[in-house]
Amino acid sequence: MTTSWLVTGARGLLGQDVLAELAGDPDARVTGLTRDQLDITDPTAVGAAVDGHQVVVNCAAWTDVDGAERSEAAATAVNGHGVRHLARACADGGAILLHVSTDYVFPGDARRPYREDAPTGPVNAYGRSKLAGERAVVELLPRTGYIVRTAWLYGEHGPSFVGTMLQLASRRETLDVVADQQGQPTWSRALAGQLGALGRAALAGRAPAGIYHGTAAGRTTWCGLARETFRLSGLDPERIRPVGSERFPRPAARPAFGVLGHDNWSRAGLVPLPQWDDQLVAALKTPALAALATAARPGELTR
Fold it and tell me: Which pLDDT tens digit goes with each residue over 104-118?
C-alpha cells in the first residue's frame, strides 16, 4: 500500500539523506520541500503542505547554536513555533509527525546516559528553542507524535565536523580540538534509515508515540572523533591535540555530557543505531568524505 511522506528541510544535511532513504521504499510517495519552498513559521503554508500526507519528517530547523544565543526569538520562531504549526497541521490531517530534536535539551551534567524520560534543562537558547518544539509535539500529538533526539550529526551533504577536520588537515600541521565534552557522533545517513524505519513502524501501529534517541551507540569526545577520523583516513591522529573548552570561548554554552540512552527503540521493535566508530567507517567511504580524505593524505599538506 502506497503511503505519502512529506520531508521538510529537504536540502539540509539530514533532509537529503532522508529523501535518499525513502527513495528506496517502493511503497513511499515522497514530497521534499526546502526552506525556500516551505517556511514552517507560516501556519497557512504549513497547513497546505501537510494536507494529504500520512507521515511528516521534520528536518527543518534553526541549527546555528551561537546565532540562537544572539537571536533567541528568531530561533524559537523556527524550532518552537514552527514545530507547533507542523504538529497542529498533522493533528488536523491525521498525519504522523517525526520531529528531529537534540541532546541540547539536557543540561549536560549527568554521569550516565540520559534516558528518554530524563528531566530536561537546556543551558543555552538553542536548547530552549528545541525544547519548545518538543513540548508542542507532546501536547498536540500525544498518539501520533514522535520526537527523535540526535547529536553531533555529520554527513556528506553539507558542512559538518568530520568534513571540516579533513579540510583543515590539508592546511594545518596540527589541530587543537576540545577533549572535555562527551557525545555520540551520528552519521546522518544512519539516522535517516532509522527515521524511515520508525515511520513505517508507526504506520503499522507497532511504534508507540513519544521520545526516541537517534544517536550512535558508545561515546567519545570531539578530540576522539577527530583522531579516529584521521586514523581511518590514513592520517596521523597525533596531529590532533586535546585542549579544554576554555580555549574556544563561544557565545552559547555547550553541555559537557550529551550521551543518550536508547531504551525506547525496543518498544517499536527496532534496533538502536550502531557504534559511532562503525558508522564513521561507513561514512568515510561516501564519495564526498572519501574525496576530502584523499586530498588530506600525507605529502599533500599545503602550508
Answer: 999 999 999 999 999
> Does the predicted TM-score (pTM) go above 0.90?
yes
Q: Strands, E, within the chain: which ranges?
A: 3-8, 28-33, 55-58, 96-102, 145-150, 153-154, 175-178, 182-183, 186-187, 210-213, 220-221, 240-243
From 104, 114, 126, 212, active-site residue: 126
**pLDDT tens for each residue of 115-128:** 999 999 999 999 99
Residue range 3-158+186-217+260-274 in CATH 3.60.15.10: no
**Residue 67 pLDDT:** 98
- Pick from 108, 104, 95: nearest CA to 149: 104
Q: Is the pLDDT of residue 301 over 90?
A: no
Grid coordinates given for 123: 543551558
CB atoms inside a 10 Å sphere around CB 54: 19
Residue 126 among the catalytic residues: yes
Domain ranges of the chain: 3-158+186-217+260-274
